[in-house]
Design a protein that fits this description.
Chain A is of the alpha+beta class. Chain A has 12 helices and 19 strands. Chain B is α+β, with helices and mostly antiparallel strands. In chain B, the strands form 2 sheets. In chain B, strands 2-3-5-4 form a 4-stranded antiparallel sheet. Chain B has a two-stranded antiparallel sheet with strand order 1-6. Classes of the chains: A alpha+beta, B alpha+beta.
Chain lengths: 454, 114
């Protein structure tokens, strides 16, 4: 057994710094590269792409990235865990294997794929059996939006990724897997942790939580002493150095910017936290109130003492559905009386929208520079240099939203003076794809693990 | 004396649907008991009046010197439904740091705050 396993985070979301994974591989020793691509509504985007092209439906950038990294991955035996497969895991793996063959790695690279998360085609059958998939936030039954559903995926945990790693694959590609599972699985595989070693599974899960948002653990978006965080232009992404006893150190490569400190780790630990006593994943229930942190030197924080409990009998399901349309228009008003001008423009706009008989589910006005982030807590502004008027509308009727977008630019010649900031032209009408979180009994989902060879 | 939380804590916030979470972290270990005593669920609910339209829940993490708040019905529907600039609640962290709390003068002096 290895004494230490290093898992490096390469992407905090789909669209994070493109060269971060490369710098993780080239910047120093690592054993695993962990790449999280899937935000809550990413699956619906991929489902649409696949509907247009049966070969699409996964994180496209992953394929050239693997091509670029492949020689180093093979030479240094660095393994990859990534949920890049979206709704077409096999398509993603096939594209990666094609690159491997082109580079002359036929017979030298195998890819493990994890599927079984996609339940879109099974929804009616599940609903028929009274598995209601009620919205976890609102309690509504799924039947309310059944005809508008675009994707439905269960969050798989670490277990099938461990199974793939046990088959000695270089790269594991999953669909909707939890971001924490992508970090936990390598540790379970390397250290032989059991599926009921709850404390260890909780520790690996929290390690995953710390690095799943990339540089947000290593100095990015960090409030603590932010002005003295060095060289964010060259920020190092976080790396977990785990020990068999499940304690671990969070660090980053030398000669990179940012910082890994007790405060930077605390900030990431509380990010998107619910009840800290029960952080629920498919693998375990982790207790954040048991986490101990210790400064272990420059850019090193030791994490230990973590306790966990048995996993629940359910998996979370992420369902996306079409929920109408929205558009947001903006204009910028300058001193003097910038705020008063923006407020006057808003009144004029709303009066015109009323006269047109446009109906929206919601219309929201914000004054950027005055109240867009802190609302009334920000207090009254004193003579700002400029204020941005920002008006958003949402509703089921696309034509009404489109009509709204034609009312913004005319305010320039027909409203209060000293206005600018319309270079982008008419606001775009966006289709809203909303998120429906639900639970499904675990026994309904059977993960499938396959190995494909180059 | 009145002390603004920005002198006592740092914070990070995020979203889960229409709920914003704010993790409030003591800048120094000895500030945590003050936060735990003064930054109550009721005070936070009052602070976010007109912004948070649901309940406020509070959880204690003495091991991190932190409190976690859940602010329900605060994000205009949340996720892609929200029309807000800050649909993900990222700046609720600093909005909480605007809060003032009362600390007895002696205690404040002892902590080097006056």
């Amino acid at each position: 057994m290895k004494e230490k396993v290093r898992v490096a985070a390469g992407q905090g979301f789909w669209g994070d710094l493109p060269d971060a994974p490369v710098r993780q591989v080239e910047g120093g020793p690592i054993d695993y590269l962990m790449l999280d691509y899937l935000a809550e509504v990413t699956m619906s985007i991929m489902q649409k792409q696949k509907a247009r092209d049966p070969n699409a439906g996964y994180a496209k950038d992953f394929v050239p990235l693997m091509r670029q990294l492949m020689p180093a991955l093979i030479e240094r035996d660095i393994r990859v865990t990534a949920n890049a497969g979206g709704v077409n895991v096999k398509g993603c793996a096939t594209a990666v294997l094609e690159q491997a063959r082109e580079l002359g790695f036929a017979g030298k690279l195998s890819v493990g794929i994890v599927t079984g998360d996609d339940i879109l085609a099974r929804l009616d059958e599940l609903l028929d059996r009274n598995i209601e998939l009620r919205n976890m936030d609102t309690g509504e039954p799924l039947a309310t939006v059944r005809d508008r559903i675009q994707s439905a995926n269960a969050y798989l945990g670490a277990a099938p990724i461990v199974e793939a790693l046990n088959k000695n694959v270089q790269i594991v590609i999953t669909g909707r897997a939890t971001d924490t599972g992508l970090t936990l699985a390598p540790l379970m595989h390397e250290f032989g942790w059991g599926f009921n070693d709850w404390d260890k599974l909780a520790a690996g899960t929290i390690a995953g939580h710390i690095i799943e948002c990339g540089a947000q653990a290593s100095g990015g978006n960090c409030q603590y002493d932010w002005q003295n965080i060095p060289d964010l232009a060259n920020v190092g992404f976080p790396i977990v150095e785990a020990a068999p006893d499940s304690s671990f150190v969070v660090t980053k490569h030398q000669k990179t910017g940012g910082c890994v400190s007790v405060p930077s780790i605390k900030e990431q630990l509380v990010y998107e936290m619910g009840d800290p006593h029960e952080y629920i994943t498919p693998d375990c229930v982790a207790d954040f109130t048991t986490i101990r942190l210790e400064d272990a030197g420059k850019d090193r924080v030791r994490v230990f003492g973590i306790k966990g409990r048995p996993a629940t009998e359910f998996l979370k399901v992420s369902i996306s559905y079409s929920a109408g349309y929205k558009a947001v228009g903006t204009l910028v008003y300058s001193w003097p009386d910038a705020y008063a001008k923006a407020q006057a423009a808003d009144r004029i706009l709303r009066s015109r929208l009323d006269r047109l008989g446009l109906k929206f589910d919601q219309i929201l006005t914000e004054f950027v520079g005055v109240n867009a982030t802190h609302g009334s807590l920000a207090g009254d502004p004193t003579e700002p240099a400029e204020v941005q008027l920002r008006v958003g509308v949402r509703g089921p009727n696309k034509a009404m939203i489109e009509r709204f977008t034609k009312e913004i630019a005319p305010l320039i010649l027909t409203g209060p003076p000293a206005v600018t900031g319309f270079a982008g032209g008419r606001p775009k009408v966006e289709e809203i794809v909303a998120y429906w979180p639900a639970l499904i009994p675990k026994q309904e989902i059977t993960p499938i693990v396959e190995v494909l060879e180059a | 004396m009145k002390v603004q939380l920005v002198r006592l804590a740092h914070a990070r916030s995020g979203d889960k649907g229409d709920t914003a979470n704010v993790g409030l972290i003591a800048l120094r270990e000895e500030f945590y008991p003050i936060l735990a005593r003064e930054v109550t669920q009721a005070r936070v609910k009052q602070h976010f009046k007109g912004i948070c339209h649901g309940d406020v829940e509070r959880f204690e993490l003495p091991n991190l010197g932190a409190l976690n708040f859940l602010l329900h019905h605060s994000l205009g529907g949340g996720g892609t439904l929200s029309l807000m600039t800050d649909a993900q609640g990222k700046t609720f962290s600093t909005a909480l740091l605007r809060m003032y709390i009362d600390i007895p003068d002696d205690e404040a002096r002892g902590l080097g705050l006056s």
